[in-house]
């Protein structure tokens, strides 16, 4: 989330028509088309975050500025050229890194929260314990994971929460 991915299309110097067809997971479809004979770009139902990149010396590309969950979906580039028709399809999935919070509950047990991530984060503890975890699902596949450390004792003085996620790993430690 927040990055600006660039999706490229098959490059051909003799392009007569190039179309990006976008089918988001949520909301209606949109398309961007370029007609070489008219040197004209047509935009249908696409947000301003879709930035057309078309230069003769580079592959035709579509930049999605500040990508968000609402950009998830299928992106297909179709090229009509003298040599034939070509297409390339992308299935865009947006990763949302969770916010890591570590605190003690009302009984003094460490609680690790990996909030609002997509997909759900994995929560591990060091030292390993019989922790209890629960997930709370939100809209658009966003998930919060709460894990309670249950092994605080006289011989365990610190607990470290490790959050594993495709968008990056994080860890925090707290005294028992």
UniProtKB/TrEMBL annotation:
Gene Ontology terms, MF aspect: signaling receptor activity
Entry GO terms, CC: external side of plasma membrane
Any single GO BP term: regulation of neuroinflammatory response
Primary subcellular site in the record, as a coarse category: membrane
Topology class, membrane: Single-pass membrane protein
Positions of the Ig-like domain: 1-93
Superkingdom of origin organism: Eukaryota
Subcellular location as annotated: Membrane
UniProt keyword terms in alphabetical order: Disulfide bond, Glycoprotein, Membrane, Transmembrane, Transmembrane helix
Family as reported in the entry's similarity comment: Belongs to the CD200R family.
The protein's name in its UniProt record: MOR1A protein
Organism: Eurystomus gularis
């Amino acid at each position: 989330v927040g990055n600006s991915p660039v999706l490229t299309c098959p490059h051909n110097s003799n392009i007569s028509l190039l179309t990006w067809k976008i089918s988001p997971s949520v909301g209606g479809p949109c398309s961007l088309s370029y007609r070489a004979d008219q040197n004209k770009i047509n935009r249908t139902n696409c947000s301003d975050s879709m930035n057309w990149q078309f230069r003769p010396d580079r592959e035709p590309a579509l930049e999605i500025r500040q990508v968000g969950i609402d950009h998830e979906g299928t992106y297909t580039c179709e090229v009509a050229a003298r040599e034939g028709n070509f297409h390339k399809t992308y299935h865009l999935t947006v990763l949302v890194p969770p916010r890591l919070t570590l605190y003690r509950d009302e009984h003094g047990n460490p609680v690790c929260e990996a909030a609002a991530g997509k997909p759900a984060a994995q929560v591990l503890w060091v030292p390993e314990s019989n922790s209890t975890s629960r997930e709370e699902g939100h809209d658009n596949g966003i998930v919060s994971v709460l894990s309670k450390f249950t092994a605080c004792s006289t011989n365990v003085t610190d607990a470290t929460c490790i959050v594993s996620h495709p968008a990056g790993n994080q860890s925090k430690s707290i005294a028992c």
